[in-house]
Amino acid sequence: MKKSLTLRNLTGRPGRTAALTLLVFFLSLTLCGGGLTLASLNRGLTSLENRLGADVIVMPSRGALKVDPETLFLQGTIGPYYMPLKTVEKINSTPGIARSATQIYLSSMRASCCSMPIQVIGFDPAEDFTVQSWLKESKRDTLRTGDLLVGSKVNARPGESIKLYNVSCPVAGQLAPTGTGLDTAVYCTLDTVRTLMEAAADLGGYSTINGDPADTVSAVYIKAAEGTDPQDVADEINIHVRKVRAICTRSMITDVSDSLTGLRGTMTGLAGAILVLGWLLLLLAFMLVTGERRREFATLRVCGYSRKALAGLLLRESLVISLLGAALGIAAGFLLTGAFSTALESALGLPFLMPGMSTKAALAMGTLGICLVAGPLASAWAAGRVSRVDTGLILREG
Amino acid sequence: MKLQAQNISKRFFRQNRNSNYFYAVQPCDFDLEEGALTVIMGRSGSGKTTFMSLLAGLLPPDSGGVFAEGKNLYTMKDKALSAFRAAHLAVVPQGRAALDTLSVWENVMLNARILRRENEETAGKAKELLDRFGMTPLKDARPRELSGGELRRMTLCRALVTEPEILFCDEPTGDLDEENTRLVLETLRDYAHAGHSVLLVTHEPEAAAYADRLLKMKEGLPEASDP
After folding, report:
1. Quick check: is B95 in a domain?
2. What are the two backbone dihedrals, phi and then psi, of residue B45, each rounded to the nearest 5 degrees?
3. What's the pLDDT at B176?
């Protein structure tokens, strides 16, 4: 007998082994996939907080046009909205502002003049305090006029060029993923975006303020002075500056965080219920299998197997099954969550960023640990039951 | 090795007019002799299998004990009793007693494997036994592919491979034809006469002719009878 009895029992009954492995697989998939989704949402929220950088965001608001920053940050959709520089001056004169930076948004067109429909975000490296930290994380310190930095989900690599309104812009680098709508945008200096706006205007695609890109701004990012409540700054702007909407990012983060907390509670509850149900199913399966194998166990006892040796055999079998099922479930959990991350992001409407290797490893080890305890625990109960029955009674059954 | 049972009894739950229990084995003494084939005959339900299980250390008695080498099997810890069973006893149980995931050869070598005696000597012994019982062509088959008689012969081969000092057989000829029944009974008698203790539990009338000592089981009591 070259292979151990444990392996012979597992390979000799492939249907039974596959059914038990499948149960552990689903348990592991639920734990790993659910955990990975929650970790991705948590990281997405942290990333969103980091990327916002500002306490207050001010955007134009005119008539029916209600600009919603959440749409920009979560879905990456930018509307063609602008305000003149004199509005920016009024905003900057609001008390309680420590720093402010302007950004200009432009959307490319689905036409021959543009390589792809894409959102362009222009910022001033000299005054910016929101994009710069991201550039540093992405190991990009400088950005030359004319160059583009592309988000992680933009299909262009450094060294390639993107054509925007017939202007060819070289891609200088790719930014680290954020799990937000910002990953689908490209970034450039204010000079670059103004050049693109002029080119767009020439093609009739865009109308700027007074036809002057230099007098055009899409958003103002504000850092409140120390000791000042950002909400007071936002309220002050909303009251005193016309045709703009100031939003406190804290409330935006809180909204997203509240959604995430609700989702986290639901998912944790579901995962817990599935874990308990899955374990009960596993217990039932092991009990049925053990009942079916009573004669086999009696034969081993007759041949000299002790109760402990018999329980050991069953535990080893369940350990192999649990290891196999857990490994497959973890692999499937990572693959499926990775493959459907974009779908999950848009379905949940929340920032979604896959966690780093250490979190993934911890999640995999945790899932493996739970499965390696759950499987043998279920079989231990069944093993205890069968080993307590006197062999003579089983033999008496005939 | 001599096996002695002192005042052993076993009762099971069964509700009737007078009591909630019935005695499968009534309190009795019994010696299993060395070098003799002891045959216990009796009707179905007379307590033969329970009596054999008590002697083999497989079913704790409600009273008394079973002694071998001065030790009561039922005061031993499970690990020690299992080791004793593996080293000194072999049982051919009634009904199916095979591991379906192993081949016939591996089933026959199971006792030797548990005793860590999978060597050339035991392998040679296993080949000889399979040959004697006409099982050599089936050595690679799975137990589920065997008939009842073939399974019975395979179990007997397994019990004999390690040459245990005490052998218990419960209806080993149950599914066998006349020729194989004779072969099995001759083998058991020869094995007993080679200095081993053999207890055969059966309702096969032909077995009486091979017995050195014949007992009849009546209402849970083994009673001596003429061979």
Report:
1. yes
2. 85, 5
3. 85
